[in-house]
Specification:
Blueprint lengths: L6 H28 L1 H9 L1 H38 L1 E3 L4 E3 L2 E3 L4 E4 L8 E12 L2 E13 L11 E11 L2 E4 L2 E4 L4 E5 L5 E8 L4 E3 L2 E3 L4 E4 L15 E4 L5 E4 L2 E4 L2 E4 L5 E9 L3 E3 L2 E3 L4 E4 L13 E4 L5 E3 L4 E2 L3 E5 L5 E6 H4 L14
Antiparallel strand pairs: 1-4, 2-3, 4-5, 5-6, 6-7, 7-10, 8-9, 10-11, 11-14, 12-13, 14-15, 15-18, 16-17, 17-19, 18-19, 19-22, 20-21, 21-24, 22-23, 23-26, 24-25, 26-27
Helix pairs in contact: 1-2, 1-3
Amino acid sequence: MIPVAPLPLIVPLIYLSSFVAGIWLLVWLSLLAFSPRARQRLRRRWPSRGLLMLLLLIPLGLRAWLEIGLWQYERERAREEAAHSAVLERASRLGGIEMPAGTRLKLELKHQPESFREAEFPTPVTIRGVATRHLQRWLQSEQDDPQDPWKTTGVHPTSLRLRGEGVAEIEGWRCDASQEIAFASERDGRPAAFEGCSLATGNRADDIDFPAGARLFASDGMVYTDGYRDAERWRVMPETGQQVWVRGIALSGGALAFDRDRRLYGLGGTVLAEALQLGAWHYPAGTEVSLSPRAAWRAQHPHAWLFSPTHEAASHASGERLEHGTSLLQTLDGEELERLDNRAAGVIDFIELEIGDDR
């Protein structure tokens, strides 16, 4: 049995019954006002007619009670919204940011502008090189009251999200300011480390051009279970359907990792966007392409790329086929180095489920 909340059913019933009762009562009162015969019948049958009138007033009373409740709710909600919003009457510095007069704030704590979680600027405000129109802060609550450990006594930001106009140059990357640009935040609200953005046109690293809209993420290096931290500093993730040309190979999906010098450091989850002929091997579009800095084979074959067929097998000029489950190490000049089982190569195979009608 599916539970159904009664209130959504009762409210339309009250509106409908009050409408019918109102029409009936209006017609009845009109008859009493203009028809002497109707008034005579009312006097002769007053008890029954009085009871009927009382019954007609019940849905009207419920409608009035409902309208009063809704009015009180809207008034309370408007009061809460007013307490959690503010407009700066003069230029002020809040959360380490210089804000012009007319800035609209959404507050986390009532009547406390310092607790703002969003700021909308009437004119662009330059924050870390970004012509910012909208600022959003992710806040961490503080509970410092020993008498009430669950009471929020304050907040401090942990991350900032900026949106604005044009293109922002940040640490050598061209970011689209109309999309979110992320920074970590100092406790006082000042922007700290750059965390990522949506790339604008004109970005290039290690002879690789990135399409506009690709997502950029800053990294301090991936930490492995043995405590090792790799040299990854930047990660670029193209949008679905976008192609990136890497060493003459069209790739899509996944992520491209770069070190601090912006040299290509790794590929993960990327697939061939187009069929590729590499040496004697022909790989169909959709073949997974990996470049892992910590793979077991990397020490022996530092310049190798790993190609892992998925749905469609790779084919050799001799007619040999490489099916799903086996990966091939090759250099980009076509030299075949080694064949590996996917498990040994570090390739994770996922089970794909297709849900649909059996016809």
